[in-house]
Design the sequence.
DNA sequence: GTCTATAAGATGATAGAC
DNA sequence: GTCTATCATCTTATAGAC
């Protein structure tokens, strides 16, 4: 299976065919920079410096290449944060890492890539599968941190880490899209979210009296 | 200016050329259902039941038509909520109206339209202008409500209504995209956000003691 | 104002030489 | 494994008949 080539070959393990590798990288970059609307075989091949026909030889279809490229890309970027996430134990730290991650991934273009992928996924089942995979990878990492950070605190019984992780991921994607048309507005939105995060953090650190009052109110509100 | 036709004609005021009107509606629907990647003159014209060449006669380019269609659509949908928003005076009511709006706009497809528009706007300046316009309309409405609801309460000094409105708009768009690939996950995310909203609501309704403690903590955290 | 016809180019994908 | 050449099909946009 050195490379009879019809498609699979999975992860970038061992030594991958250099053309395959170039195409994977070029596909991710094209998605980031040209968006889903401009995603076509020729632009990708041009960026990779190889012939357009090789996309179909190696990956069958353009969507097949994009699928493989997204999986490789998300595998790499989540791995990068895995141990950083593992060291986070408080909400304060989580907010700090979150800000750092947000800035780094933004300039790497991975959030933009996810946004374009999700937009295209609404109509293309192959892209939808890739998008599902990517979102699951990210939310799994985030969910684990949120769960650990909330554990033991008063928020443990109120917060659903799985839901929060998904809301965070989706929210960042929406903000990234919004930033493309109104950078100042998106920045204001992000700041507001950080303030809200700080608020929750404060809540998590409340004295027992206020904490009890809070819990009672929450229960009453839920019932209503 | 009944219709010498080269382009403008602005709002759907008075009596608009029926072909123009059909094209505007068809463009919005095509954007909702086919997405930005499949957006082309022929599918739009087919949906409108008119000839493809009329798009260029009436709107110059496909992007010009989409721009006009989005502006008309957002004008209509924000107007629909204006008086409903005006009657909201508390955070509880805001959350209820928000849920209602979310469901109604989702089934109308307006959030999906905005998401596809934003995705395409990253690469197309004409679409970016339309997206800016649409986001401004929505955030202006939401910002006014948030400001009114927060006014007088303890959150007034902590919350930035403009930023919150933008975060809400962008967040819903991200969730809409996410729902297209993982409906259950998006639902969990939305529920988590509603819980967080209820939490903030409780905060807004806290007794003076807890309120003072909260304020002090927030100030300390901000300084750090 | 609307149509048909068409130009000029981009698209995914394949066949076959090397 | 990579290339050239090519297909049928799609795209935006225009010219001109009606």
Sequence:
């Amino acid at each position: 299976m050195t490379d009879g080539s019809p498609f699979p070959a999975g992860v970038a393990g061992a030594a991958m065919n250099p053309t395959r590798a170039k195409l994977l990288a070029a596909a991710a970059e094209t998605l980031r920079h040209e968006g889903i609307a401009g995603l076509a075989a020729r632009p990708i091949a041009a960026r990779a410096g190889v012939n357009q026909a090789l996309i179909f030889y190696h990956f069958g279809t353009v969507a097949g290449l994009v699928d493989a490229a997204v999986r490789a890309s998300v595998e790499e970027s989540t791995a990068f944060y895995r141990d950083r996430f593992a060291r986070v134990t408080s909400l304060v730290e989580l907010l700090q890492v979150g800000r750092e991650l947000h800035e780094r991934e933004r300039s790497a273009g991975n959030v933009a890539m996810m946004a374009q992928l999700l937009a295209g996924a609404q109509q293309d089942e192959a892209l939808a599968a890739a998008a599902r995979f990517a979102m699951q990878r990210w939310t799994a990492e985030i969910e684990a941190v949120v769960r650990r950070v909330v554990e033991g605190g008063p928020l443990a019984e109120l917060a659903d880490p799985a839901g929060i992780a998904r809301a965070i991921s989706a929210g960042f994607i929406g903000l990234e899209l919004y930033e493309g048309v109104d950078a100042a507005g998106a920045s204001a939105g992000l700041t507001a979210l950080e303030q809200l995060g700080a608020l929750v953090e404060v809540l998590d650190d409340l004295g027992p009296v206020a904490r009890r009052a809070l819990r009672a109110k929450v229960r009453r509100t839920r019932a209503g």
Q: What stands out?
A: Chain A touches chain B through 70 residues (CB under 8 Å). Chain A has a mean pLDDT of 90. The two ends of chain A are 62 Å apart (CA to CA). Residues 40-42, 52-53, 55-56, 61-62 of chain A lie near DNA strand C (CB under 10 Å from a C1').
